[in-house]
Predict the structure.
Amino acid sequence: QKEVEQNSGPLSVPEGAIASLNCTYSDRGSQSFFWYRQYSGKSPELIMFIYSNGDKEDGRFTAQLNKASQYVSLLIRDSQPSDSATYLCAVNGNKLVFGAGTILRVKS
Amino acid sequence: GAGVSQSPSNKVTEKGKDVELRCDPISGHTALYWYRQSLGQGLEFLIYFQGNSAPDKSGLPSDRFSAERTGGSVSTLTIQRTQQEDSAVYLCASSRAPRKSTDTQYFGPGTRLTVL
């Protein structure tokens, strides 16, 4: 089992819809969770992080964490074509481990 | 302030040659990380430097790979006798407080290495 798992996608959503990106992790001791966005040919950039169970909202982005289920998700409301990218989940236990990423395509 | 910088942005080399990739972290960041990302793949951890501590080399794929960090700032990743499977984007990241669970890594633009 991989330490951090993501569906590779692509996930296709129409413009204006909610995109839901999911990530599961294996280390129950993990304490912090990060979502990075990576445009094609570019380096990853941090979108947001979450440490506590529940939801954390930042603009159109909402991160959701459920430590009991070892599950973290990212919701993107009112998806735009500019949101089309690969989204990387990263989990910090003893070290930061990245998932392979989910490709998101927002169709106009 | 300036972000993480890397050079060169692109490097094309012939199989068997040595290459050096450079990373300049964000000022004040004590931790520095090297990752490799092959086409369409996730990030593969290579090596981690923290202050004056011995580096965590657990991710280096072979003894052809080495890295150093001079003066606690700039780092150089060296690949000796390059092979075609070394072709990838090499990403450097830095962070301020790696002992804290809240620590956040910031990435440089990467070096795209192509081994012919």
In short: The two ends of chain A are 36 Å apart (CA to CA).
